[in-house]
Structure formats: C-alpha cells, structure tokens
Amino acid sequence: MIRLTWVQPEDxxxxxxxxxAEDGRGALPEVAAIGDRWHAAGGHDAPPRxxxxxxxxxxxLRALAGELLDELxxxxxxxxxxxxxxxxxxxxxxxxxxxxxxxxxPGRVRGAWWGRAAGCLLxxxxxxxxxxxxxxxxxxTGNWPIRGWFTAKGLPPEIAERWPxxxxxxxxxxxxxxxxxxxxxxxxxxxxxxxxxxxxxxxxTTEDVARTWLDALPAGxxxxxxxxxxxxxxxxxxxxxxxxxxxxxxxWIGALIRADVYGWxxxxxxxxxxxxxxxxxxxxxxxxxxxGAMFAAAMCAQALVAGDVxxxxxxxxxxxxPGSRLAEAVRQAVADAAAExxxxxxxxxxxxxxxxLHWVHTINNAALLxxxxxxxxxxxxxTVGAAVxxxxxxxxxxxxxxxxxxxxxxxxxxxxxxxDRLASSLPGFDGVSIESLAARTLxxxxxxxx
Length: 450
Description:
GO terms for molecular function: hydrolase activity; metal ion binding. The chain is mainly α and about 450 residues long. The protein has 22 helices and no strands.
C-alpha cells in the first residue's frame, strides 16, 4: 500500500489546530469546539517531528477530517499579518527603495552557491536529530564546536545507536563518503528558481513558478506545504488558493529555502529580491511563511555587496512587517547572539521562546538563522556550525546561513568544497557544476541592468 504523508485529511487536522494556536485562532471558542469534535472522534494530534501518521483512517474519520479542515479554513486569523505584497510593503516603514542592480564580484556569487551547498551538506546527516544528539555526536568525534564535516569514524557504538544518522543522507554526507554535492530539496529549489528566471525573465509570475514545478519537479521530491500546493495544482486550483486549501504547513520553512537565487539575481536591491520571493512563496505559503522567503531573499541580495552581517540582517528585516511574529523573533535572536558569545546559551533562549513550534517552522528557523549569522560574524565554519548545532531544520538553516556567509566572504574555505558536481533529479541539472551555476546566475543580470 502506498500512502503519502502530508496530504491525507486525517493527517492535517492536528497540524491545522496547531497552526490555529500559533496564528491567534486557538483561543476562539469555535476552534476549541472543532478540536473537541476531532479528539472525541478519535483523531490524533500533530506529531512534533515525524511526518507519518498512526496509519490509514476509517472513511468516517477521514470524511470528518475534511469537514473540520474546511471549517477551520473559514475562520480568519485575527493577527495583522497580511499576505498580499501591497499590504506587506505598506506595513514596512523601512521598506527599501528599489535600487539599480550592480554587478557583484564573481567570487561572491560563487561563494554564495558553494556556501549554500556546503551548509546543506553539513546539516544533512543530522537532520531530524535533536540538539542533544548533535552535540553528543560532535563531541564524541572531536568536532565540537562544529567546525567540519560529521564523521562516523571513532563514534562510540552507544552514541551511534542512540542517535542514528539520517538514513537517507548518511551514505553521501559524511566526511568519509562525500563525493560531490548530493541531491537535496534545499538545492533543487535553487535550481528551479534559476530555471524560472532563465525561462521567463524578470517579469515571471507565480503561475510561471507553478508551471515550472509541474514540468520539472518530481512529486516525490516535495514535502509539507509544497506537497499540499502541488496537490492543489493538480486539483485545478490556482494561486493563491494553492497556498491555503487544506495546507496547514503554509507558515513552515519551504518558501524560505526557495529564495536565495532571487537575491543573487538582484545584488544590492533587496526590495526587488523580496518582491520576487513573494511571487514564488505565495504559491504555497502565507503570512510568516512568505515573510521568511522575503527575509532570506533580501539578505542574499545585500550579502553580495555588503561589508558585514549587520547590514545584511538589516536589509532582511526591512522587508518584513515589524509587528509580525517573524520580525519579533529575529530581533530577539539578533540581540541574544550579539550579547552572548556562548551559542549554546543563545540556542537555549531560542528554544525557550520557540520550542513549541514544529522543527521545520519558518519562525524558529529564521531566528536561528539570524542568530547563527551574528554569532559567526563572517566566519564560515562558525556560522554554519551554529546553524546546525541549533538542531531544528539543520540542512535548511545551514544552507541559507552558508549562502550568506559565503557571499560576504567572497568564497568559502577550500576544505568546505567538494568535487564540483551537484546531483539532482531535475531535468537538465543532474551533474551540473557549482561553477557553471554561478556563471549562469551572473548572466541573469546582463543586458537588462537598470
């Protein structure tokens, strides 16, 4: 029997109730009543880390799940967190002026691509392992604080048994077996964004992004919000309905990990980068899920021309509504990391504030990303090491952190590079070199510079 996770109604109700608790609807009596009906019928809560549900539901429970999801969707969030671009811009008093793009140093674009690849690769074998386990593995192998690839060599059996590697990644992402950059959704989405811009140019639309997904992105390579949006496209829904129909993952990290290329294509112009990220994000996300993408794209745009991390984070926050949950989380994380040199203590504070969120939510991971950037202060190893040590979405947070750190530094240390070959299931990209991707990214701005 093939049973996809992230799409069955009975798997989604618990997540939607959790989303309601986060976006201000949880205290409403009608939401509480829906939760009572679900639990009284035998429905399960959202699992905190794994995507799998307890198993197929009886048809009666599945039908009830669909009804409850639709009822929950009809209850709007009371929080002032808009999803439309005009409202977002209006709510950002520091929204940056659109600026003429500059040609960045080629080394910065290469550094961004290599940094993203290296950060992703560092986090892959420990994805889904909590902070405690990541530290135990790193300490046992002489890699704490994390400053290099993970390894199984010398790892005591009792630690290996208690904290097993990510089963899909360990074969290609440990120091002893790395041979090029293995496939990952955090890299596939960067390739897709590049494809969108090469095919459709600067005036691309959300519909162009959707068509590119359907043309090139295997359904088995999408998860959470992207899987829900993909399903909705196949049902005939159009954006932005694709982001909201039975999609309780719409504020999770998926849109943030798709945003880097929109920044790299707009060096020094965070406003345009953020608006492009919005076009992409609205296919599958709303509110803070969209803000995370805009935040990342703006930082990536500024990282190609900036002199320090503070300038980069300032650019990112300028495109996020300051009253949003994401903006508040980032500001607090930045303050903590600036005041506390021990990153474990910084992470403790992040978990105290955001530990209730799912490990692939946007808000906690964006806060971790910002804290890692401040803590690393331009040092590549310290930056990606902190992002992974945070223990939430390890490969995603470290990929974006590495992208920014690599761009700021104009490259990554040689020990963080691999054989120049990137694996991908996307048509035309399997085996592509990072160097060629950097060249193609630089070419995006040629001929139409304002």
